[in-house]
């Protein structure tokens, strides 16, 4: 159950998203999430994985989204299967698939993942690139590097360099990327309660502190993006300051430099449909505000192309 410390959030969600949507947010945040698996195309085909997992007594259901299978019945934890240990699949919330799949990658591209651990999205980027090109996966928390390394090695990923670094210091490195993924650190208010380690949400002042970090990371990423390149920005937060408003302000700082590209997944609402204190940049209509649902966390995602001048 959402604790009383969520009350100020519930109040503001009602103002921003409306009463009905807020009721659905509360219901879904409380819900135990279903798990989805995605075949690792570097090692196995969907059909092969499907049949070998089902032989072990698991019941999987094909979904129309991203080649993902819903685990309908599990006789035991799927991470104990030889298929998992061999890196034949990864386990996902469907939301985490949207940012990497929004980037149109070419085989020799250089991609920077600015906030990478535990590497869920990095691994999907590597699969999309079919182990070609180069991914630089940056993580500033030493404690989170082993999980990132373990995922990358289990899945047989060979095109990824892990950098233990604060992405704010990327300005010291002479690197320009074709694409950037910034799955920014955030309050996590969109995460299902079972996944959210905090018993109460962050205070509003902490969220505002987050927005300053997100703003700096966005600027650093933008400086390391080649003209014509794309940057995908995402947060698992329901707070517009970490999503829509962050991008609205970014567009104001970079007039005529940014084309917002549409997110092609049919889910959520356009970022400019929220009820905010002032009108939002019309380009926000191409961003996505996603609400918690089965397989989905509360999420915001925007795809930005650097205009060639
Ligand atoms: C939302 S999580 C990323 C999840 C990851 N993209 C995935 O899909 O598995 C944010 C990560 O960014 C890291 N982080 C926060 N600030 C950072 C910074 N300035 N530079 C690099 N990593 C940072 C955090 O330690 C955390 O691991």
CATH architecture of the largest domain, please? 3-Layer(aba) Sandwich
Hetero groups: S-adenosylmethionine
The CATH topology label of the largest domain is Rossmann fold
Category from helices, strands and their pairing: alpha/beta
Relative helix content: 25-40%
Q: Rg, please?
A: 19 Å
Mean pLDDT score: 94
- The share of residues in extended strands comes to 15-25%
Q: How many domains would you count in the coordinates? A: 2
- Show unreliable segments: none
What is the H/E order?
A: HHEHEEHEHEHEHEEHEHEEEE
Largest sheet: 9 strands, mixed
Shape: globular
Tell me the name of the CATH homologous superfamily of the largest domain.
Vaccinia Virus protein VP39
Record field, number of beta strands: 13
The helix count comes to 9
End-to-end CA span: 51 Å
CATH class category label of the largest domain = Alpha Beta
Outline the structure in words.
- The chain folds into two domains: 36-92, Alpha-Beta Plaits, CATH 3.30.70; 95-306, Rossmann fold (3-Layer(aba) Sandwich), CATH 3.40.50.150.
- The strands form two sheets. Strands 5, 6, 7, 8, 9, 10, 11, 12 and 13 form a nine-stranded mixed beta sheet that branches.
- The radius of gyration is 19 Å and the shape is globular.
- Helix content is 29%, strand content 22%.
- Helix 1 (7-17) crosses helix 2 (19-30).
- It is of the alpha/beta class.
């Amino acid at each position: 159950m959402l604790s009383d410390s969520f009350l100020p959030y519930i109040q503001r969600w009602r103002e921003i998203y409306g009463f009905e949507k807020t009721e659905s947010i509360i219901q879904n945040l409380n819900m135990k999430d279903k798990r989805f698996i995605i075949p690792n195309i570097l090692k196995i085909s969907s059909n092969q994985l499907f049949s070998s997992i089902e032989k072990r007594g698991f019941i999987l259901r094909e979904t129309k989204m991203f080649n993902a299978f819903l685990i309908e019945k599990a006789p035991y934890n799927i991470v104990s299967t030889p298929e998992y240990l061999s890196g034949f699949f990864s386990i996902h919330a469907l939301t985490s698939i949207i940012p990497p799949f929004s980037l149109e990658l070419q085989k020799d591209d250089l991609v920077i993942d600015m906030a990478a651990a535990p590497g869920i999205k990095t691994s999907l980027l590597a699969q999309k690139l079919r182990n070609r090109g180069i991914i630089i996966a940056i993580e500033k928390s030493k404690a989170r590097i082993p999980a990132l390394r373990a995922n990358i090695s289990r899945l047989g990923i060979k095109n990824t360099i892990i950098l233990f670094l604060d992405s704010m210091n990327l300005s010291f490195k002479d690197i320009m990327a074709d694409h950037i993924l910034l799955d920014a650190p955030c309050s996590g208010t969109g995460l299902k309660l079972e996944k959210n380690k905090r018993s109460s949400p962050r205070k509003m002042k902490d969220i505002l502190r987050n927005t300053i970090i997100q703003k700096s990371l966005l600027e650093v990423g933008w400086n390391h993006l080649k003209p014509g390149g794309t940057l995908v920005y995402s947060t698992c937060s329901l707070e517009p300051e970490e999503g829509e408003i962050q991008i609205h302000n970014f567009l104001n700082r970079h007039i005529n430099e940014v084309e917002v590209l549409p997110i092609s997944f049919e889910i959520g609402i356009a970022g400019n449909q929220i009820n905010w204190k002032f009108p939002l940049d019309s380009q926000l209509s191409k961003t996505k505000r996603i609400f918690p649902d089965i397989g989905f966390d509360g999420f915001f995602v925007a795809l930005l192309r650097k205009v060639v001048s």
